[in-house]
Amino acid sequence: MDYSILIRKAMEYKERAYVPYSHFRVGAAILTENDSIFGGCNIENVSFGATNCAERTAIFKAVSEEGKTDIKAIAIVSDEDGYTYPCGICRQVISEFAAEDIKIILAKSEEEYIVKEMKDIFPEPFDKF
């Protein structure tokens, strides 16, 4: 799979981040089971609990706009020098909508990235109610 398209989309969405408090821009792009791509950025609020992460923004858009539920891949980028992993809440949300073999692409650029599997970053999700 060519991850450059997803990484490029995540970078585009990072530029739209609304981060007046943390100044920590994050962009994400997901690839659904139907090969649709949805992107998102983090959107802060002065009441930090009302903030939404880029990963969840992209996933919620896919579900609300097209009813997509199986995510084949997600690319995540930020302005940090290292790789930015999804937060705990995002890991839980990703696991809810992840295809069994989902790829988590953590990127610095189109050329510099690592690929993880869900079990690598979230080995024991809450999945029983």
UniProtKB/TrEMBL annotation:
SUPFAM superfamilies (alphabetical): Cytidine deaminase-like
EC number: 3.5.4.5
Listed cofactors: Zn(2+)
Catalyses which reaction(s): cytidine + H2O + H(+) = uridine + NH4(+); 2'-deoxycytidine + H2O + H(+) = 2'-deoxyuridine + NH4(+)
Keywords assigned by UniProt, alphabetized: Hydrolase, Metal-binding, Zinc
GO molecular function: cytidine deaminase activity
UniProt keyword annotation of Ion transport present: no
InterPro entries, A to Z: APOBEC/CMP_deaminase_Zn-bd, CMP_dCMP_dom, Cyt/Deoxycyt_deaminase, Cyt_deam_tetra, Cytidine_deaminase-like
Coiled coil (UniProt feature): none
Family affiliation: Belongs to the cytidine and deoxycytidylate deaminase family.
Function: This enzyme scavenges exogenous and endogenous cytidine and 2'-deoxycytidine for UMP synthesis.
Name of the molecule in the record: Cytidine deaminase
